[in-house]
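Q: Could you fold this chain for me?
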Amino acid sequence: MAELIMENVQKNFDGVAALTGINAHISDGEFVALLGPSGCGKTTLLRLLAGFEKPTEGQLKIGKEVVASTSADTFLPPEERNIGIVFQSYALWPHMSVKRNISYPLEVRRLPREERTQKVQEALALTELEAYADRSPATLSGGQRQRVALARCLVTNPQAVLLDEPLANLDLALRSTMQEAFTHFHHRTGATMIYVTHDQTEAMAMADRVAVMEKGAIRQFASPEQLYNEPENSFVADFVGEGTVVSARPTEELRHNQIGMQLFGQTYITRAKTTTPTHVCIRPEHLRFSDDAPLRAKVRNTTYLGGKFRVKLETMCGHILVALSPDRLQNDMAIGLDIVSPWAFSDNELQHG
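A: Sure. Below is the predicted structure, expressed as structure tokens.
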């Protein structure tokens, strides 16, 4: 396995930028998710890493080897990068058994039969497919076929594994099971994995770090916990998790990572790392119901989530907030709200890789 390094990578299609100034360092053995809405550039970045596309500008390295560089006029095709790829469509050969599907890349490389057999057995064991070795892909479930595609990818001992929305075609229950399977597989193999998805639940559940992308740029590259608790800009705050972003201004100096911010006509103590925050992110867990609180809101609707209720609230100044309640609240009910330890940030366009 190997680290992946992207330096000032840009990709244009017909003069239009699909990726702009991507800088990121993915460590050896790290599980990274590329997360963002459709058209943000995440699949384009994956294709650049795989060698299916050439960068317009910049450099890509796999380990110590430069695989693409516009300044050095270097470009290694996919077959010379030793990168494993798992597609959304599985791309299995229907006329071959599971074992033969996994073995075929080794046959193309003309490995001796004994070595092929050993590698295929190891891949079957890693993906827990030994019992299905002689079956046809058509007789397998979606999750089993996905594991066959993963095993076929692993059998060549790739430097990194790229996964392009591999769970998109599965139902919700099976997607949850496969999330556990991918996480388990990563722990067992220590593989460097890049996982493309538009589903934040998948990304947050599996990845060591998540690169949140928008309009061809990485808006924040951090652990799931940091993305949720400390978003660096309004896009990440809105896209990751649930909450409300409100413009605010500081009323005192930053001390011990806390600063007073004025919002809704009141001053609240917020968490922060910058001395000049411009916005506050209010998550459901930051809201407390209090009859004595000066902030007043009306209940707009209540949704049961199993053991708790999601309450949509509208403040007197028209802002929508979301809180959690152990009880169902009636629509149009007036309620007092206190805001406890929200996150304040200075909105910016910077990328962090």
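A (continued): The chain has eight helices and 22 strands.
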